[in-house]
Design goal:
Distance between the termini: 58 Å
Helix content: 40-55%
CATH topology: Rossmann fold
CATH architecture: 3-Layer(aba) Sandwich
Number of helices: 11
């Protein structure tokens, strides 16, 4: 087969897989967990879950791309709320405008990543939390890096599990996946949003500066002093090469075993490493 045609077919299949995976996340989130609350700031409403208690705060960012919702956190490779409840105050939220979620607000076309980081920092402020740790799955990887860029004095340690990243051999993968698996359903339920707006939003998010981890540069990672633990993956949307490059560049980074999700018997080992990492970098107070 002609190499160019092979690449087109592979990219299209991968984008379809991304869209299908987002549909699975959506299907898993028909019912939100009990104990959730809402927080309003201006036109943005955030649906969140707060474990409460006196443990050091741990912000948990679910996977699922732009369909990231708090209920899917409890159906991932491991559930931080279940695993770390005894040691940390776990907090999570629906991503703004995720189709199966209850967080909503404007589609900020010119600042897609920063709009989500705004919501995360606003939630921490609402809860009276200054310093916190963070663990992010999938899209949580770029969002964690953006938090480290925006609030380096507040995030004391970070875990990136199966982080998203840019694949130069599939340059429109995440853009295509969200154009199929997120945008059309959003437009159906939000008459104030059009597919042209979605296209411009996703262009700024995934095509304007398509490289590395989307939200920060390699120079930023080289200079980032925050302790980081990376649990790599290697599916089209979670490139192993990018995860390992970030781990090599960040001066205070650690890496888990790989693969850590298969066989499933390895997951508890990864969880133990995450717990040990978080405890080692936990300050005395928030």
């Amino acid at each position: 087969m002609d190499p160019i045609r092979r690449q087109i077919i592979a990219t299209g299949a991968a984008a379809t897989a991304v869209a299908a995976a987002q549909g699975v996340f959506a299907a898993q989130t028909a019912q939100a967990p009990s104990g959730t609350s809402f927080f309003d700031k201006g036109p943005v409403r955030t649906h969140y879950e707060d474990q409460g208690g006196t443990g050091f705060p741990l912000l948990c960012i679910p996977g699922g791309g732009l369909n990231s919702v708090l209920a899917s956190l409890h159906n991932g490779p491991f559930d931080p709320f279940k695993e770390f409840a005894g040691d940390f105050r776990c907090i999570t939220q629906d991503l703004r405008n995720a189709n199966a979620g209850q967080s909503s607000g404007p589609l900020e076309i010119d600042r897609p990543w920063d709009s989500h980081t705004d919501d995360q920092l606003d939630l921490m402020d609402h809860l009276g939390i200054n310093k916190f740790m963070v663990i992010g799955f999938c899209i949580g990887g770029p969002l964690v890096w953006n938090l480290l860029k925006r609030a380096p004095d507040r995030v004391v340690a970070a875990v990136l599990a199966q982080p998203s990243g840019f694949r130069p051999e599939m340059p429109t993968l995440t853009y295509d996946g969200n154009m199929m698996g997120w945008g059309p359903d959003l437009v159906k339920r939000r008459p104030d949003i059009t597919m042209d707006m979605v296209q411009r939003y996703l262009t700024n998010m995934y095509k304007k500066n398509p490289d590395f981890v989307f939200t920060v540069t390699r120079d930023f990672v080289r200079q980032c002093q925050t302790p980081i633990l990376i649990l790599p993956d290697d599916i089209p949307a979670h490139p192993y090469k990018v995860a390992m490059e970030a781990a090599m560049l960040a001066p205070n980074a650690e890496v888990s075993m790989y693969p850590w999700k298969e066989p499933k018997e390895r997951i508890p080992i990864a969880v133990r490493q995450v717990r040990s990492f978080l405890k080692a970098h936990r300050p005395a107070s928030a």
